[in-house]
Design a protein that fits this description.
With 315 residues, the protein is α+β, with helices and mostly antiparallel strands. It contains eleven helices and twelve strands.
């Protein structure tokens, strides 16, 4: 859009002091004619931008006029670019926004901000896994959230056929490279996994959002509900010290050390999962290196798994 380009042109002038139309064209990736017209438009609009002819000439802001669009401190600039820089790589609009922002920074901040943006690489894939591609529909949903428009789509739940939903989109969440839409429905707040959404359509109907709604707070509520559902069955386990970090990594927040291992005595832990079967399946991989003390349903499931394995692979 031309308005965006005019702001970018003004920021380039502010950062460099003086530029030629050709230099501005290269910075904004437009033709020299377009860059010259933009500079003339700024001048006609009353911005103190004037050309100077002759050798060493160009366009400049009269009297060193400045337009501060950031108000950032040096530390804030570094933190912003370190955070946003890696995330902006796959999104052309984000890269363009960072380019415009960096030229608006004071010269003393600029080098450090750009260095911070290059200091981090984000690789979302775990070892041995492929990186998930961001669903293309994320951009469509983000636009619907920003413009407050209702969204219609088909959605298939686990074990249920796809059904058409019409929702008020409140926000998007990227959790471990999986995208979710938090939305309002006739039945209250719901969360939809974006990769299961089909035929997404942004309608012309205005969406509603709770007054003062905070997406961070809403998502924390969702996480707490999911985690409670995933920890309905708990088991007390004895494990050698070397396995404690592995169990903590496997069960995350659903692993609690009751007693540390010492003097050859195994550690006592409590681990949890959504069902006794699911918990037993996760613990079975540790074989006899751990011992499940309780509850009995988990011990029974482990015995069944062991019998099934022995029947298939035993002699």
């Amino acid at each position: 859009m031309r308005a965006d380009r005019l702001v970018a042109a003004l920021l380039v002038l502010q950062a460099r002091g003086r530029v030629t139309a050709a230099e501005l064209a290269g910075e904004l990736e437009v033709s020299v004619t377009t860059a010259r017209r933009d500079l003339e438009a700024l001048s006609a609009a009353g911005v103190p931008v004037y050309p100077q002819v002759g050798r060493g000439g160009g366009w400049s802001l009269l009297g060193g006029a400045r337009t501060d669009l950031t108000g950032l401190t040096a530390g804030e600039a570094r933190a912003l670019f370190a955070l946003v820089g890696p995330a902006a790589s796959p999104v052309p609009e984000a890269r363009a926004a960072l380019r415009k922002l960096v030229v608006s920074l004071p010269g003393t901040f600029r080098d450090e901000a750009e260095a911070a943006a290059r200091a981090v690489v984000v690789d979302a894939a775990r070892w041995g896994e492929r990186e998930r591609a961001r669903p293309p529909v994320v951009d469509t949903l983000r636009d619907a959230v920003a413009r407050r428009r209702r969204v219609r789509f088909g959605y298939a739940g686990r074990g249920r056929p796809a059904a058409v939903r019409v929702v008020d989109p409140w926000g998007l969440v990227d959790k471990d490279d999986v995208w979710y839409l938090v939305a309002g429905t006739d039945r209250g707040r719901r969360t939809f996994r974006v990769e299961r959404m089909e035929d997404v359509e942004v309608t012309a109907d205005a969406a509603t959002r709770p007054e003062g709604a905070d997406l961070d707070a809403l998502w924390r509520e969702v996480v707490e509900e999911v985690e409670r559902a995933r920890s309905r069955v708990a088991a007390t386990v004895l494990a050698p010290a070397r396995l404690v970090p592995i169990l903590r990594d496997r069960f995350g927040r659903h692993c609690r050390v009751v007693a540390e291992a010492r003097d050859g005595t195994p550690a006592r832990l409590v681990v949890a999962a959504h069902t006794a079967t699911g918990l037993a399946e996760q613990l079975a991989g540790f074989g006899v290196t751990i011992e499940v003390l309780e509850p009995e349903p988990v011990r029974t499931e482990l015995a069944r798994i062991g019998a099934d394995l022995a029947a298939r692979y035993g002699t």
